[in-house]
Design a protein that fits this description.
By secondary structure, the protein is mainly alpha-helical. It has helices at about 1-10, 30-40, 45-65, 65-110, 125-150; strands at about 165-170, 175-180. Among the domains are: about 25-115; about 115-150. It has a two-stranded antiparallel sheet with strand order 1-2. Helix 2 packs across helix 4. The relative contact order is 0.04.
């Protein structure tokens, strides 16, 4: 009876497998890319790479620093770098896609967020900048409302001039702009 109730209350629950773990099916390249990305991200791999470079450099005097000696390191590093670009890009694409799916699921489950934000990665730069500016304005309004609420409630910001509050712009330069209080005089030799 209990098994029937749980099946009814959770109709989308996955069926248990023999091993208890339901592993997703992945292509051979995906499995290869994941293993290579994991292996190359280990400190031991970095140490091995440095060791190879040191070994190559030490052999230089024995072979007279000839062209073949230089060609060996240049060709091998070029080939490895060329192939790693595809492995890293595959891993990055998969991770980014999974992250977007997870965020989309969270957005779709919350009340209030706009579902049109779920595919922002498909928009062009101008549209993204417009939406970013909209969120920046909303954040400023929210901070101002919060400051007004604390001032009305007698909080620690009561009595401060609104122009004294620091406004942080999240623009490409990430500048902090602090407005001067009304009537403030500039002190010679000091930057405002």
């Amino acid at each position: 009876m209990l098994a029937k109730m749980s099946a009814v209350s959770h109709p989308k629950a996955p069926e248990p497998t023999r091993s208890g773990l339901d592993k997703p099916k992945r292509s051979a390249f995906t499995r290869f890319a994941q293993k290579v990305a994991h292996w190359t991200g280990q400190p031991a791999t970095f140490i091995v790479a440095v060791g190879i470079i040191v070994l190559w450099a030490v052999t230089g005097p024995f072979v007279g620093f000839n062209d073949t000696w230089q060609l060996i390191i240049n060709t091998s590093t070029t080939i490895i770098t060329f192939l790693m670009v595809f492995v890293i890009q595959n891993s990055q694409n998969r991770d980014t896609t999974a992250l977007h799916i997870k965020l989309d699921e969270l957005i779709s489950r919350l009340e209030g967020p706009r579902e049109k934000l779920m595919d922002l990665e498909e928009l062009d730069e101008e549209e993204l900048e417009r939406i970013r500016a909209e969120f920046e304005q909303r954040a400023c309004r929210s901070r101002a409302a919060k400051d007004e609420g604390s001032a009305a409630a007698g909080g620690d910001t009561a009595g401060k001039d609104a122009t004294e509050k620091e406004v942080v712009r999240k623009s490409p330069g990430r500048r902090k702009v602090a407005a001067k209080p009304a009537g403030a005089a500039r002190i010679p030799g000091r930057q405002a």
